[in-house]
Specification:
24% of the residues lie in helices and 17% in strands. The chain has 13 helices and 18 strands. The strands form three sheets. Strands 1-18-5-4-2-3 form a six-stranded mixed beta sheet, sandwiched between helices. It is globular and about 80 Å long.
Length: 467
Amino acid sequence: MVDQRPSSSPIHDFATWEPVLRLLRAGTAEGQAAAPVRVAGSIGRGSWSLPLRRRMPPPGRAAQVGDMQDEFDAVKRVQHALADAGVDDISFTAEISPAGQVALRLLGPSPAVEPGIGTPHPGALTLVEGALPEPWRRLPEPAPGAVPAPSADPELLERTLRERLPGAVGATEAEITAAEARLGVTLPDELKALYRVTRSRWEDWGDDYEAAQRECTAVGCELFALDDLYIADASSRHCRWEFAAMEAVVTPPGAAVQGLVGSPGWIAFGDNGGGDRLAVDLTPGPRGHTGQIIMVGHEENVGASLVADSLTDLVLNRPGERRGGSGEDRPPAVAHVNIRSLPGVEAAAHPGLEVLSIGVWDEAPLTLAPVMGLPRLRTLVAYPGTLADPLEIAGLTGLEYLELGPQEWRVLLDAGAVPRSLSAAAIKVHGNPDPLPVVAVANELLALWDRPRIVQTVLEGSLGAVP
């Protein structure tokens, strides 16, 4: 889809892009040759990826901001235009003739397409509006026999904190009730006891700059203000489709914590100082306690770890009992077939398989026959050139996410064999191919679901001949 009539927005003004294009031409070896220069890149409001050869600093000196000032200034000009247009990211390709004539193509954006990561190629395509990967749709399993830990003692907890934090301003019952109404959940007694001692508002500390540190020491974490409590459900743990589709929710029978992305029963109340959130867990695993304290890591997309059996234990610095172990030897729900991991698709196949990733492979292309009919297989990712027959994919009727190379997608599109069960898809590229054919494949996929396509806006201008 090509728009030859750009809007009046600064992002569609050739002058906005001219400084970036001059830098790209100057930094490309072919810029001095008789052949046209072809470049591609992407710029977002907070980052950019451009094929520039940056100057090395003099020996003995580190790189400084001034060494890249021209690049910063050129990119900032485009970023201001993005903000003016209400656009977060945009990719582009350009062909620059030896005489300096430029054909610049702006690619997108589309609300159905995630931006690529450090590349002008499109990221995941959301084929069904609002669709979420299966792990993000998973709710906690009921644990009818779960009870608070024997160590949970709201009175001891409150008494201990009042001794450690004399003079702290606690929350009123009305404020606690308001927090419960906002969250839509009744706070457990231990958490109420904590906030009756301190509601953890900065304005309550006045000029006492050490109050926050005393509170952190007393509680055992960086405590959120009562007004900042939130439910750490799946929506609070955002993840791009191409990564989220590779995850699986698994809770072994002996687990204290359910292996969820998030839960309506995880009440986040603090931070460990490194970005990991502490939460009260009201939906524990098979061997957990209601009200146990868990840590939701910021570097993982799924699961949480047990910190303490109760909030009382956390404050009294009594670590939680280690509980775990599956009690059975189950094949993994996520399987990786490549030169370093599993030796073939047959080795990955079992009824519980949810995700199959086929990576770099130096033997004959693989057949998907061993995974046909598996009831839970929902994600297939295949590195370009690894499939013996891409049309076998048509037999995988439960796929919700599919990531293939452009040629494999071409086979499916030409045969009308793209699985209609898909909620999202991605085009896996090797190296740095021309983005335009990849965008064409993406637009064909989006058209099958009547989703907004990636619009190409053509701008023409001149940089003049190379001096």
